Amino acid sequence: MENPEKDRGRRRRRAVVPVGATGRGPGLALRLPIRTSLLLLGLLMTGLAQVPVPASAPRGFWALPENLTVVEGAAAELWCGVSAPGSTVQWAKDGLLLGPDPRIPSFPRYRLQGDPTKGEFHLHIEACDLSDDAGYECQVSRSETGPELVSPRVILSILVPPKVLQLTPEAGSMVTWVAGQEYLVSCVSGDAKPAPDITFLLSGQTISDISANVNEGSQEKLFTTEATARVTPQSSDNGQLLVCEGSSPALDTPIKASVTMNVLFPPGPPVIEWPGLDEGHARAGQNLELLCMARGGNPLATLQWLKNGQPVSTAWGTEHTQAVARSMLVMIVRPEDHGARLSCEAYNSVSTGTQERGVTLQVTFPPSAVTILGSASQSENKNVTLSCITKSSRPRVLLRWWLGWRQLLSTEETVIDGLHGGYISMSNLTFLARREDNGLTLTCEAFSEAFTKETFKKSLALNVKYPAQKLWIEGPPEGQRLRAGTRVRLVCLAIGGNPDPSLTWYKDSRTVTEPRPPQEPRRVQLGSLEKSGSTFSRELVLITGPSDNQAKFTCKAGQLSASTQLVVQFPPTNVTILANASALRPGDALNLTCVSVSSNPPVNLSWDKEGERLEGVAATPRSAPFKGSAAARSVLLRMTSRDHGHRVTCRAHSTELRETVSAFYRLNVLYPPEFLGEQVLMVTAVEQGEALLPVSVSANPAPEAFNWTFRGYRLSPAGGPRHRILSGGALQLWNVTRADDGLYQLHCQNSEGTAEALVRLDVHYAPIIRALQDPTEVNIGGSVDIVCTVDANPILPEMFNWERLGEEEEDQSLDDMEKISKGSTGRLRIHHAKLTQAGAYQCIVDNGVAPPARGLVRLVVRFAPHVEHPSPLTKVAAAGDSTSSATLHCRARGVPNIVFTWTKNGVPLDLQDPRYTEHTYHQSGVHSSLLTIANVSAAQDYALFTCTATNPLGSDHTDIQLVSISRPDPPLGLKVVSMTPYSVGLEWKPGFDGGLPQSFQVRYEALGTPGFLYMNVLPPQATTFTLTGLQPSTRYRVWLLASNALGDSGIADKGSQISVTTPGLDQPSGEPDYQLPTEQPAGPSRLPLLPVLFAVGGLLLLSNASCVGGFLWQRRLKRLAEGISEKTEAGSEEDRVRNEYEESQWTGDRDTRSSMVSTTDVEPYYHSMRDFSPQLPPTLEEVSYPHGVTGLKEENMAFPGHVYDELERLYAPSGAWGPLYDEVPVGSCDLYWPEDRYEDARGIYDQVAGDLDPMEPDALPFELRGQLV
Questions:
Q1: Does residue 299 have a cis peptide bond before it, meaning omega lies within 30 degrees of 0?
Q2: How far, in Å, CA of 934 to CA of 938, rounded?
Q3: Residue 1140 neighbours by CB distance under 10 Å
Q4: Handedness of CA 1250, 1252, 1255, 1257 (dihedral sign)
Q5: C-alpha distances in Å from residue 795, one per residue of 175, 645, 765, 1071
Q6: How far is C-alpha 595 from the chain's CA centre?
Q7: Cα separation, 594 vs 801, whole angstroms
Q8: Which of 774, 785, 937 is nearest to 857 (CA)?
Q9: Are 789 and 825 in contact (CB under 8 A)?
């Protein structure tokens, strides 16, 4: 693989030619500029080339090397042609021999090029670098054919181009300079050979003012050039490049570095564009827009407008593409702007001063107003004198007068100087006022040639005064009777007059106004003056009242006047009742006088009291206002307390007006408190509720105090925690208790006297059971009363009710019991007590006040012990290896508590023997005794044990046989529970399992078809199974086999076989129709040949399998014996520890089935002893209950445990009960005893062999094979 460096050298290689060549050889010729440094290098190389060589050398070479110049990175080749073939040739570099090997290993870039057989030994160098810059010789060693030869020494010169130029300021950046200022720029080249030339270009033009220095480079033979230029930029150089160029013989094109110049220079002068031709001339109100522009500048100019030297606008905009700045001044020319100087200033950051352009305003403005001084109102035939004056204007204006369309001549005109360089014009006028000129417009007009399109004037209306000609009133005829409240319209009219006559109304010489009190109706409406042509009118509208009777209404207009008079009828303006006394008491006499102040016409007076007419006496009337008539009448009354608050009314009636005016006097009779007939004397309240004892009392003045007393104690008037006295005296109580029941005495008092009353408070409260004997005990067959005593109010005859608590409806019947109720005591009487009557009863008392009281009581029927013992015998299996243990379970029912005793083969058992341990449990009426036998010995313990239960009413016993582990007994009670054409559902009860886990197998045959079929029951402990795969309308015989590790139960027991016929397809499936097992009918049996052959073959196969099975049986017996021995020891220790713990507390799983069988079962009762852990219902100590449970609903209440077994579920009362017996502590809340379901006898010991490894039938040790001793 070739060297990559050599490949690069080839790509960059240039053809080499002798120094001084001007043409190009095989490759690219290098053109060398004629410069001083290069000439020196050439002379040096020429001198070296003239080194003398031996005279024989030229004769031995046919080609000699020449001096070469090569750019760094290119390839070079020095020629050497030898005429003596077979000679050893090598090159020397600066005297160092490179060796004759053509590959030249010490210099990877060097190699000998050419054909050695032709004497070609050219030195080829790839990718030349500065280390190759040296002198070279081609040397030929001495040989047989020729002497030693050495070529002339030649120079290989390597040119190194500069790689970078370092420009200050930094290349590629933008520099900001100010035009006209001088700046220094330096440029330094990188290492190069020879030293490069540096040139500066400013905007494309070469800079002549340059100084350059050549310095040594970072390596020998390398040089750097540092050049400095002085630059003075101009505005035209803005945005141009300043370039540093570096050139060298080693470069085809110069290298460059540049910066961009940002040259700052001031802008040009500003220019103002004036709209129109007359610069500086403007008119007031004109919207003047002036544009100021300044071109050039970097940055562009900042513009601002000034008015009289004060800035008025500093907003401007720039356009960089056109290099111009613009600012627009917008202003409304005003008169005061006359003579103002507007100027625009332009400058930027490099401006030496501010450039300005200004304009002086010449403003033309009209007069802002024309004013007429003097009054244009005058009486007829008199002179009117007026003056007209204008505001300042430029130029001045002329004035003229007009009356209507007639011009009037002024008497005098004057002009004076005004504001803002303007003028003020004035004109005076005097003329005679005539009636026909009234209303004409008098105008002063200002005009000027400068304002030809505008007119400025001021006008007034000429008012010539003269009087009215006629005045009269229009209204109702005089003497007409008007009723008070009638709307009357009076109109005053006048003709002529200037100014318009002012019509004024008067009533009896008083000016009529239009009062508007906010709360009173609008009785007078005074209209405004109205004009119709030369006629003037003013209206007066009245709502007539008593004051208008015979009043005179007058209308006046200047010296003229007119009058009219009204006649008004009105009822009494005021009816007043006068009394001779103010403080009245029962028995006092009261004299009342009724006075009608004024009416027109006169009225009649009458009296009544609360609708009862009273006879009065006429009195002397007084004078009446409004020119009407007055009247008076008196009445005398005798006072009682019932008169208090009554009204005595006086009525004044006008027959002509058919109107009555009334006034009343309310009687104020002082009397002591009096209780009214509706006063409540009995108040009923509910306990814990509220009670209000009302007060119905009458008194004047009102009672000063209401004092309540209860049982001799006065209740605080300020109130208390449970009472307060209301403002009306009523007593309010809350959270009423039964202690508040009783009489409350009320004492009322005012300044006139006192009164008293008694009010009874009857407090009703919910019943509370005070006495309920729990439990209530009775011997079976005896009589007893369950007594329930309550505290309640009210006491009702039928408030007692009794319930019996139970799950079944028949358990709740009370038909055979007698209910007795008397006062606050209720009784439930039971005659001839039976066990079925025992249980929980609830006394419910409801007197209508919620909540009803409920009390629970247990009826305990005492009876003699009854031991649960199956028939005929109970068996328990255990291994007699002196390492296992067995537990015998004896359970009995009876009340009171039972004492258990044990015997073995009739001999009392010594419980002091450490091998025997007894645990006794009492749960209400159910009692259990567990006898644990440790280290069971076949010789000593395989015996008949008797358990005897005794209480004061009698005793009972049962026998339990302890036996060895054996094969299981046959299942019992096989029956069909369902049937279809293709299946049969079976059910059975397991027999004694022999002390080991047992499984079941169904064997069946179809009658008439030889051979048996087998089907294993899964799961193994199941007691139901559905046999499938049957044929319709076929009779089958079915056997059920039980098996354990010691064998099967056999099929001899008739209780484990059954015959059944499946229904046909046309028969409905339902209840089974089967027959109990019967014997086979007598007679010969004819067997088909083919089934017989199959049976014989099957027997042969079975015999071979039994031989193999026998061997496996013996081997597994040995393994199982070892495992069972270890587990038996562990089980004994476990039982011992468990029994020690059970002495203090019993624990276990509630789901474990009972260890006793129901007395209704007929099959024997068996025990298996492996890992025996009997599970009784948990004692009360084991069950935690919430405390303080009260208010339980009836359906949720449960007793803590059984009273006895006949009551399967009892209900507990709310609260804690004391113990029924000392041995049975009673809990404080619900306890639901598990139902007494007595399943198959092996239930407790289902898990006997669960911890054993699966065994073959022959894998039991000797002591577990069931041999009896």
A1: yes
A2: 12
A3: 10
A4: negative
A5: 118, 48, 10, 60
A6: 81
A7: 77
A8: 774
A9: yes
Cβ distance 71 to 14 under 8 Å? yes
Give the three-state DSSP class for 1020: coil
How far is residue 125's CA from residue 380's CA, in Å, rounded to a whole number? 139
The Cα–Cα gap between 802 and 857 comes to: 11
The amino acid that residue 648 corresponds to is: V
Which residues are registered as beta bridge partners of 647? 666
SS3 198: strand
The token pair that represents 310 in the structure block: 């004060």
How far from chain centre, in Å, is Cα 895? 65
Read off the tokens for 1175.
Answer: 């599970």
Q: How far is residue 845's CA from residue 855's CA, in Å, rounded to a whole number?
A: 9
Residues 292/205, Cβ–Cβ less than 8 Å: no
- How far from 1243 is each of 702, 928, 1023, CA to CA, in Å? 90, 17, 12
Give the number of C-alpha atoms closer than 13 A to the C-alpha of residue 1268, restricted to the C-beta side: 5
Q: 191: which 2 tokens?
A: 């290492």
DSSP characters over 1157-1189: --TT--S-EEEE-TT----PPPPGGG----SS-
CA angle 568, 571, 576 (to 5 degrees): 135
Neighbours of 345 (CB within 10 A): 20
Give Cα separations from 655 to 273, 482, 549, 1240 (angstroms): 102, 16, 19, 119
Query: CB 333: neighbour CB atoms within 10 A?
Result: 19
Alpha-carbon distance of 384 to 431, in angstroms, equals 5
Can the peptide bond before residue 896 be classed as cis, meaning omega within 30 degrees of 0? yes
- Amino acid (one-letter) located at 758: L
Work out the number of other CB atoms within 10 angstroms of the CB of residue 211.
10
- Asked if 91 and 137 count as a contact pair (C-beta separation under 8 A), the reply is yes
Name the token pair of 78: 């020095």
Which among 858, 857, 859 is positioned nearest to 783, based on CA atoms? 859
Tell me which residue has tokens 């409240």: 485
Task: Please name which of 493, 419, 1241 lies closest in space to residue 874, comparing C-alpha atoms.
Answer: 1241
Q: Are 828 and 783 in contact (CB under 8 A)?
A: no
State how far the alpha carbon of 922 is from the alpha carbons of 909, 1157, 1201, in Å: 21, 19, 10
Closest CA to 453 of 387, 372, 364, 391: 364
Tokens matching residue 568: 């008004």
**HEC per residue, 525-544:** EECCCEEECCEEEEEEEEEC
Burial class of residue 151 (count of CB atoms within 10 Å of its CB; 0-12, 13-18, 19+): buried
For residues 185 and 242, the answer to whether their CB atoms sit within 8 Å is: yes
* Closest among 1048, 867, 889 to 970, alpha carbons compared: 1048
Q: Which residue reads 């330094």 in tokens?
A: 188
The mean pLDDT values, 10 residues at a time, for the chain of 1269 residues are 40 34 31 36 37 46 92 93 83 91 91 89 93 92 80 93 91 91 92 92 89 90 93 89 92 92 92 85 88 90 91 89 90 90 90 88 90 89 91 90 89 89 91 87 90 86 86 88 90 87 89 70 83 89 89 88 90 90 88 90 90 85 83 90 90 90 92 89 92 93 92 90 91 92 93 92 93 90 92 90 78 82 92 88 92 92 85 76 89 91 92 92 88 91 92 91 89 91 92 88 90 90 92 92 89 77 78 42 40 52 54 48 39 36 33 33 38 40 35 35 36 35 35 36 34 40 37
Question: Residue 842 — φ and ψ, nearest 5°?
Answer: -125, 125
Residue showing tokens 């054909």: 115
Secondary structure of 863-905 as H, E, C letters? EEEEECCCCCCEEEECCCECCCCEEEEEEEEEECCCEEEEEEC
Check: CB of residue 760 under 8 Å from CB of residue 740: no
- φ, ψ of residue 1124 to 5 degrees: the values are -70, -35
| Side chain identity at residue 496, one-letter code | G
